[in-house]
Design goal:
alpha+beta, three-stranded antiparallel beta sheet, two-stranded antiparallel sheet, 3 helices, 5 strands, 21% strand
Length: 107
């Protein structure tokens, strides 16, 4: 395993201990570790959902925008969490209805 896969395996053990062994192995086999700068857009409205982030550190702001581009805050994600709305979009139509933005911590 590469260092990146070792790190990912450690993060899975630490942040998602409830995942079954087989699920962790599958995630490890087909995933990658992304380190994103604060305020770098992770997902935009209308973007095709091709991956579901599992948060291992930091904080991610999840929000929508109305017709006038006003922000509608939904929730924050932290370590050990995944975005439920992204999972639903992935299972249904495959396109995002939200925006995700890494943050240092919730205000």
């Amino acid at each position: 395993m590469t260092d990146n896969k070792n790190n990912l395996g450690n993060f899975l053990e630490e942040c998602f201990p409830q995942f079954e062994k087989d699920l962790k192995a599958e995630i490890l086999a087909c995933s990658r570790l992304n380190i994103l700068a604060v305020d770098t857009l992770m997902m935009d409205i209308g973007q095709k959902v091709e991956e579901i982030p599992l948060i291992v550190s930091g904080c991610v702001k999840v929000f929508r925008e109305d017709e006038d581009d006003h922000e509608l805050f939904l929730y924050y994600l932290g370590p050990g969490e995944a975005c439920a709305i992204t999972m639903i979009c992935s299972a249904r139509e495959g396109y995002s209805k939200i925006k995700r933005l890494p943050r240092k911590k919730p205000p």
